[in-house]
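General statements about sequence and structure are easier to judge against a single worked case. Part of our work consisted of pairing the sequence of a single chain with a tokenised description of its backbone. The amino acid sequence and the backbone structure tokens for this protein are reproduced below.

***
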Amino acid sequence: MNSIGLALAIIGASLATLFAGIGSAKGVGLVGEAAAGVVSVDPDKFSKVLVLQLLPGTQGLYGLLTAILMLSRIGVIGGNVTELTVAQGLMFLGASLPIAIVGLFSGIAQGRSAAAGVGITARKPEHNGKAIIMAAMVETYAILALLVSILLIYNIAI
């Protein structure tokens, strides 16, 4: 078995989880900081700001999903590890990069947008839906990156 190819694929799965998770953690933290101030003044707005705080967390989930699909595809999950050439390992590593990189940056960007939405909710709670939509627009790019990563994972010949 070519352990270098397998190692490269596992590094790819790790990067998808790592970078998308960092983006989500940073984004959720940004919104949490903004939301804490609002909730300390008006605890009744907790559910409205919680929705905004949850939004940037999805990128981390997308990275995790990508890693699970990749590890399953190469047999690390399931117990039947596939032999991978260095080239195949590099392809799997490359397949992880769309969600890894976009997840990192979109998680932070979505956190900033959602934190601004917390400000909208604090002043005009009836406009909370608009704040959610604005933050959700950033999600589009994370979903596109997830789709590309999945398509690449399942179109690598092994």
Q: What stands out?
A: The chain is about 80% helix and 0% strand. Helices lie at 3-41, 46-54, 58-73, 86-123, 128-153.
